[in-house]
Amino acid sequence: MTLVRPRSYAETAAAVRDRGPRGVIARGLGRAYGDAAQNAGGHVLDMTGLNRVRSVDTEHGEAVCDAGVSLHRLMEVLLPLGWFVPVTPGTRQVTVGGAVCADIHGKNHHAEGGFARHVRSLDLLTADGEVRTVTPGTDLFDATTGGMGLTGVVLGATLRLLPVETSLMTVDTERATDLDDLMARLTAGDHRYRYSVAWIDLLARGSATGRAVLTRGDHAPLDALPARSRRDPLAFRPGTLPPAPRFLPDGLLRRGTVGLFNELWYRRAPRSRTGELQRLSAFFHPLDGVPDWNRIYGRSGFVQYQFVVGHERADALRRVVGMLARRRCPSFLAVLKRFGPADPGWLSFPMAGWTLALDIPAGLPGLGRFLDELDEVVAEAGGRVYLAKDARLRPETLAAMYPRLGDFRALRAQLDPDGVFASDLARRLGL
Amino acid sequence: MQDAFGIPQSLLVLGGSSEIALAIARRLVAHRTRTVLLAGRPSPRLDAAAAELRGLGADARTVAFDAEDTDSHEELLGKLFADGDIDMVLLAFGVLGDPEHDEERPQSAVRVARTNYTGALSAGLVCGQALRRQGHGTLAVLSSFAAVRARRGNFVYGSSKAGLDAFAQGLGDALYGTGARVMVVRPGFVRTRMTSGLTEAPLATDPDTVAAAVEHGLRRRRETVWVPGGLRLVAAALRLLPRPLFRRLTL
């Protein structure tokens, strides 16, 4: 694999032109959990060299930036001006290009949709070497958002921003005693919050199956701040702890340790608390506070599994949660959320319904088969798994999950007949 | 591509009528391996193996391949790789020879070396090159516990496997960092056609156990797999045994 780091549109075009026989794929900050930004034997473009925020329209709330700009950098630039990124996932360490191509979602999906909904236009370098301006409502836009970088290299984007008065969040926290309670609370109250998510304890069994802690909130208005903080309401200084040590043994995260963590996490959460002021980084990006947190999984690492099923198929969600609880998967980062209406991207992941995301240590015996079984439940319910997090889906299952896959393949065959853009994900799933 | 658990989508077996190889292929197909190429001397057994894998849902076909005909390897294997990526190559061919008489018949002893070592060296290098070019893939080499230290009882076979084992380790080091990797599998006594009629050694195992160990090794990205796992300790002890004692061992 050859890594190239272009620093301009022209250098990117040259790098794509000079690709090897095994094609090229763009890479951002490498936070995808699977093989989306890998290209075995071929070329990979490290896009973080295209790192300029070109302009910010503080009147209308729009920013024009290069694809390699991270959401962290955008927040540093935008917050002092009273603006915020329209969608942020659980980490700030992703690039705008990656956010577009995975059509990432955040805790506000139920209210405001995925990242691509807030993109006004894209600069896309296609296989023919041309730089096209792509706008919403076109086939190329819908193929590119969620298209995992396979339609071309996103070079830059114009984003619509969200106005904020402060850099703090007002957060309501409550506990749910089981899965039904959790789903009822999320269904009943989500419309009152811009951001909503629930941490769910997948190790709890019996009547406690699916117990959870809900955290929901919005950007704090200026008058919610104590006088001391009002002097600098838009300050953005996310701190970090020391990184996780380099060589941690396998098997640190077992049923015992994770079960204990989950128990404490659940007990520690207040039964109900409203209006707590939290720093933005603590609310959105707790894991960014521990650099290299993934090392706690040891040498064999972990896999992420995230799926969504429609509201009307809550039975499938119950079934999967039951299967996970019965199998006692040691998963301490499991998150349940309600999505709003689907985004238009052909391979875009979100659709109206329930999404569950979890981490599982990859060394667990029989895990591959077990996840295949979950796939079947999800596919049967008309749901899908998230390609940006996938490293193991069967290609046969994919078409059932993404009904627009045929259109995507056809557009790619026409736009890139020589297979200029290739990734391991595309090879594995035949995208 | 291999998935997060190391399971390949396409598999090339060199020595396609080997029982151990078939057990491994069966197990991988049950996961998600779809394309299987069984390379070996054309025989009803090879065809039957392909038919069995097809019955399990794989797209399996046979390829005529002769381990001893090293001149043909580059072209023949090159063609297979040209058809598309191969995620895993299982180098499984090998002959036991006749431990009782090979000592007195140099010609048949040479055949053991030509298949187990020279043939594997040639095919291994060709596949190693192809895997390096595609930037991913696992070459699994069926070595043997006998490679640890050539024993009085079957030193012709043992020395050929020792050579193969050393070669495979070296190739693994040469490929380190290219995305391709080599996994050396060292089973002890495996109950197969090849060993039928021989007295069983302690810790004897069967092809399905070897297959399970290979799957585990793929998942954990192992460089060495012992089957059963306890043989690793036996091997360590055996290596340290003083020669006069080792010589007297009836293994």
From TrEMBL, chain A:
Pfam family for this entry, one = FAD_binding_4
What superkingdom does the record give? Bacteria
**Which InterPro entries does the record associate with it?**
ALO_C, FAD-bd_PCMH, FAD-bd_PCMH-like_sf, FAD-bd_PCMH_sub2, FAD-linked_Oxase-like_C, FAD_lactone_oxidase-like, Oxid_FAD_bind_N, Vanillyl_alc_oxidase_C-sub2
Say yes or no: keyword Flavoprotein present.
yes
Keywords of the record = FAD, Flavoprotein, Oxidoreductase
Q: Where do the FAD-binding PCMH-type domain residues begin and end?
A: 1-164
PANTHER family given in the database record: D-ARABINONO-1,4-LACTONE OXIDASE, L-GULONOLACTONE OXIDASE
What is this protein's record name? Answer: FAD-binding oxidoreductase
TrEMBL record, chain B:
Q: What is its EC number?
A: 1.1.1.333
Q: Name one GO molecular function term.
A: oxidoreductase activity
- Enzyme class, one word? oxidoreductase
Q: Which residues cross the membrane?
A: none
Pfam families named among the record's database cross-references: adh_short
Which InterPro entries does the UniProt entry name for this protein? NAD(P)-bd_dom_sf, Sc_DH/Rdtase_CS, SDR_fam
Q: Does the keyword Oxidoreductase apply?
A: yes
Q: Which domain of life is it from?
A: Bacteria
Alphabetically sorted, this entry's keywords are: Oxidoreductase
Family designation: Belongs to the short-chain dehydrogenases/reductases (SDR) family.
Q: What is this protein called?
A: Decaprenylphospho-beta-D-erythro-pentofuranosid-2-ulose 2-reductase
**Species assigned in the record:** Streptomyces lycii
